[in-house]
Amino acid sequence: MRARLYKAEAYEAKIRIASQEQSLSTLKQELEELRFFAAVEQGAAMENNSTISSNHNDPPPKEDEDMMDVKQKAAEKDAELIECLATELEETEKELKRTKRQLKEERSKNKSLNEGVETHSKLMIGKMQQELDAERAKNEALSEEMSLIATRRESNNEWQTKEAALNRTIENQQAE
């Protein structure tokens, strides 16, 4: 879009250059007329009207011509520079569009990958939760068994204590 704008500006610059060249030509003619009238006022009058018309066809002074050439070359260089900039801008815009498209593709890929990772993570979390629940169930069963064993030990200890007491009582009775 900017490239078109710059190309339009370059075209307008070329039109302005042509217009300026035409204006310079007109100004040169007016300058020649003013020089003629200045010469007439100073007493260097022309012989007849044919001299006036031939004077209009005389080439302008070298300095004016050089100045015009310099201005024209500068204007042409400006127009070329504008065209180059417009072309470069157009290429940059194309590169920007290409980069944007690549970014969209990368984002799409990343989104797909993220969704895949998220799905996989959810599956893994579910599986791990099941394993954790199974381990908890095992731990609860083991805890129950351990408490049964502890209860049995206490009960066994009580029997052993009672047995030891009975054995002492028996020994005491036998000793008497």
From TrEMBL:
Name this polypeptide is given: Uncharacterized protein
Positions of the UniProt region annotated as Disordered: 46-75, 92-122, 153-176
Species whose genome carries this gene: Skeletonema marinoi
Biased composition, class Polar residues, residue ranges: 47-57
Top-level taxonomy: Eukaryota, Sar, Stramenopiles, Ochrophyta, Bacillariophyta
